Amino acid sequence: MAEPSREHLRAIIQTQSEIAASDLDLDSIMQLIASRGQELTGACAGVIELADGDEMVYRVTTGEATPFLGVRLQKEGSLSGLCVNEGRVLHSDDTAFDPRVDAEACRRVNARSMLCVPLVHRGETVGVLKVYSPKARNFDDGDVETLELLSAAIAAHMSHANLFAAEMHDGRHDALTGLLNRRAYEERLPVEVARASRYGWPLTLCLLDLDGFKAVNDTLGHPVGDTLLQRVAALIDESRLTDDGFRIGGDEFAILMPKTHREDASLAATRLCRSIGEIEIAAGEIGASFGLAEGLEDPAALHAVADSELLAAKDDLYGRPGIEPPRA
């Protein structure tokens, strides 16, 4: 069995010493480990994926994987998900012929060979350290041992695996609705914009705001308002407009629609608003307005255009006879 070279062992020891002598937080430690893993194995990319329910989240990315930070993939059908479920090292010499992986997805990200090492703490696998290469059969047993030593350096800082996983989930999800939160939105938006630009596919952003929500809170109370938000979130989740819906404000939601042109996004958003309008509440009416933006390569500009359209839609709504604007 091949073992890490002396140079690799020195680099690993140096990495462990850097971590021990510093006050780096866990995210910084993971970034350092992923970078070293890529360098020492001759990979084109390094990734740390963390398990979140039935999904794997790209928490740290280096090299050619950098544009995919924040991407969420189903555990099922991925080598990293299988690695978490089985809690052992998994190695694909050639993803083009490996039934455990999505060969087409691997081709798109230039991953011809792949190596996944579980991140284990106190007997629980919480994620994987993964490297991949455009070359078939790029990794050997020495690379496996290199990654295992690096993964141990991360695991030593996961003092409570269950707590760590919970904090990861809570830090990016809205406690009331279960949707991803604004922090997750701000992480994911530039990633999706970069992916759309790289692969030449459309991307539409929808910003949606409830009409009449303040009146519901004022007349029926905040518990009813909270229930209403949960029902709206459920409609967003059930609509399958996209992989990701976000609650980014009190009654404001964002929906990212990769591979979707504006026309199709408008039809989907209109259907969603119609469903929201059919929600029954004790008194009054509820509705929703939306704004769309497509085709911009600047995440801030994409958000600004969608927000401007949303504001115009609200102005149009409250400018109609017989409709009172929300109270300040």
Features:
about 325 residues; alpha+beta; Beta-Lactamase; Alpha-Beta Plaits; 6-stranded antiparallel β-sheet; 4-stranded antiparallel β-sheet; 11 helices; 10 strands; elongated
SSE class: alpha+beta
Query: Helix proportion of residues, in percent?
Result: 40-55%
Biggest sheet layout = 6 strands, antiparallel
Q: Number of domains in the coordinates?
A: 2
Describe the structure.
- It is a single chain.
- Strand 8 and strand 9 form a beta hairpin.
- Helix 1 runs antiparallel to helix 2, helix 2 packs antiparallel against helix 5 (141-155) and helix 8 runs antiparallel to helix 9 (222-239).
- It contains 11 helices and 10 strands.
- With 328 residues, the protein is an alpha+beta fold.
Summarize the structure.
With 328 residues, this protein is of the alpha+beta class. The chain has 11 helices and 10 strands. The model is unreliable at 320-328 (pLDDT under 50).
List the helices and strands and how they pair.
Elements: H1 6-20, H2 26-41, E1 45-52, E2 55-63, E3 72-74, H3 79-86, E4 90-92, H4 103-108, E5 113-121, E6 124-133, H5 141-155, H6 161-170, H7 182-199, E7 203-211, H8 213-220, H9 222-239, E8 244-247, E9 252-258, H10 262-277, E10 287-294, H11 299-318
Antiparallel strand pairs: 1-2, 1-6, 2-3, 4-5, 5-6, 7-9, 7-10, 8-9
